[in-house]
Write a structure and sequence with these properties.
mainly alpha; two-stranded antiparallel sheet; 549 residues; 20 helices; globular; 71% helix
Length: 549
């Protein structure tokens, strides 16, 4: 097969090919037959499947850990936050591998295969309880060391799979729109909205459907269905192969190779500088050092990433607040009256669907109503800036945590008034609808902050590092989850030593309201810091213009 034909170009690493968009045969991409919404829809479909699979594991994980695996509330929440932290930090590695070696298409394919394997292993690990008289909730079953080990190995393989999948799919989808074409540039901004819409639609189905299956029909089936869905998602992604635009780097050297080259050149010139006492020669060597390091591109790329650090750092507490929706919010919901009608009992994890239902309802409203109205006043194609959008969502998250604290105070009062403080297994005479507002506000916050962060970290990094840029966005939630894990573990030890943990296994004895007040206070401080850095931040285009000037 001649070079540049067939699937060789498609599966080539991200080095050794000319820059610019090409089709699956390695030829210059034809705008009429590649890219645009026709290609993006395949990629949105695989993201819906991947989010269905990942959230099929994560959204109800605390119920599995505190049920079949028999862990306490604080230990389970800390374990979930640690796993989420790893899952959201691994995209830094996956994004770097895709940008510099494998390419996005290949990375997505390999990560999808690992997803299928790990989800299958996860489902198999739950089958170890069969034959031991375990109930669907796992209350009477003591797991073996082998089952626990297999479960956690499978769980972290899921995290590794997401590490390759997550940063590449969205970047690959945005690559289908040419930022230099006026129409496609506007479509790309809209893509991020509809991307999140599709993702949340998949998550909503997961939380409504799979949480019921897991709680009532068994965990093997509950983890097996995501495995089948991921296999179908990979098949859909491969169907779009001929329609995609592929952006590949013209450099044959990886970032590590170029950094090594720059360092070797720097050392040789420093040695030359020490060997001579000539000031003129020394000055010339120093100038040559700067040229060599500058040519390597490492300094420029490093500076472009470091510019984003203040925004990255001032979003971490938002991620800490976000982590509570799948842990303590779910445990709170489990204590309430969850009956709807005479027969239906809502699974606690299903309440998380209100976040995604809000997103699904609000994104079309935002894209079709709010943006056009804002565009009239601001004159910006996106209506408001990315940083303004992020800040609005952070403010909504702060309000959500305040409401969560007030609802928890109400819940504790109901438990005392009903005489049920020492009976955690008895549902409180308090409707689950009390918790809906905090979920809805989280959903509205996501529409602003989540989508805004995705677009910001895609747009503000060098073009060749966009997978890494989206990995940086995900790392906010990874580090935030680790911070949450550390907070929960530390507060649990301190408060338990004083007599009663805030996160008691009997939540009627705990004080989640204190924890929510703490997060709200930290969120307020973070928001003030964010506003300061957002106001002083210079857009990538402005920085490039000043450099050229």
């Amino acid at each position: 097969m001649p070079p540049g034909s067939g699937s060789d170009a498609l599966l080539a690493r991200a080095d050794g090919l000319a820059e610019g968009p090409v089709d699956h045969r390695g030829r210059p991409a034809d705008r009429a037959s590649t890219g645009g919404w026709n290609s993006a829809l395949f990629i949105i479909a695989v993201e819906i499947g991947e989010r269905f699979a990942f959230n099929g594991v994560s959204s109800n994980l605390i119920s599995y850990l505190t049920g079949p695996l028999g862990e306490g509330n604080a230990a389970a929440a800390a374990a979930i936050n640690a796993w989420n932290g790893a899952a959201q930090l691994l995209p830094l590695l996956g994004g770097a591998l895709a940008d510099k070696w494998l390419g996005r298409y290949r990375t997505i394919t390999l990560a999808s295969l690992l997803y299928i394997l790990s989800l299958g292993m996860l489902a198999f690990s739950t089958l170890q309880s069969l034959g031991n008289n375990a109930t669907a909730g796992g209350k009477n079953y003591q797991p073996s060391t082998l089952q626990v080990a297999l479960f956690y190995v499978s769980l972290y393989l899921v995290a590794i799979a997401q590490g390759g999948h997550k940063p590449c799919v969205q970047a690959f989808g945005a690559d289908q729109f040419d930022q230099n074409d006026p129409e496609e540039s506007v479509a790309r901004s809209s893509f991020f909205n509809w991307w999140y819409f599709g993702m949340c639609a998949g998550i909503t189905v997961t939380q409504l459907f799979l949480s019921y299956v897991q709680d009532n029909m068994g965990w093997g089936l509950g983890f097996g269905i995501p495995c089948a869905v991921m296999a179908c998602a990979l098949a859909v992604f491969l169907l779009g192969t001929r329609t995609y635009r592929y952006y590949v780097s013209g450099s044959k050297r990886s970032i590590l190779a170029r950094a090594g080259e720059a360092f070797t050149a720097w050392r040789s010139r420093r040695a030359a500088n020490r060997a001579t006492e000539s000031t003129e020669f020394s000055t010339r060597v120093d100038e040559e050092e700067q040229v060599v390091v500058s040519k390597s591109g490492v300094v420029a790329e490093g500076n472009a990433i470091l510019r984003l650090f203040p925004i990255w750092a001032t979003c971490l507490i938002y991620a800490v607040a976000f982590a509570q929706s799948s842990t303590f919010f779910t445990k709170q919901a489990a204590t309430l009256d969850r009956r709807v009608g005479q027969r239906l009992k809502v699974p606690p994890a299903a309440l998380q669907s209100f976040i995604n239902i809000t997103v699904v309802v609000f994104i079309p409203l935002y894209d079709r109503v709010i943006v056009p109205l804002a565009r009239r006043y601001s004159g910006k194609p996106s209506g408001i800036t990315m940083l303004q959008r992020i800040g609005i969502g952070m403010a909504l998250s702060l309000v959500s945590m305040l409401i969560a604290a007030l609802v928890e105070i109400k819940r504790l009062r109901v438990a005392r008034d009903a005489g049920l403080v020492d009976q955690p297994e008895v549902p409180l005479p308090m409707s689950l609808w009390w918790m809906v507002p905090q979920y809805v506000l989280f959903g509205a916050a996501d529409v602003f902050t989540m989508v805004g962060l995705q677009e910001f970290f895609y747009d503000q990094v060098p073009n060749k590092l966009r997978s890494l840029g989206l990995a940086l966005y995900l790392s906010i939630f990874g580090v935030g989850s680790l911070i949450s894990s550390a907070l929960v573990s530390g507060i649990d030890r301190v408060t338990a030593a004083r007599g009663q943990s805030w996160f008691s296994n009997n939540l009627n004895h705990g004080h989640l309201d204190y924890f929510y007040w703490l997060i709200a206070a930290l969120s307020a401080v973070e928001l003030l810091a964010y506003v300061f850095f957002a106001v002083t931040y210079k857009d990538k285009g402005a920085v490039n213009s000043s450099i050229v000037g």
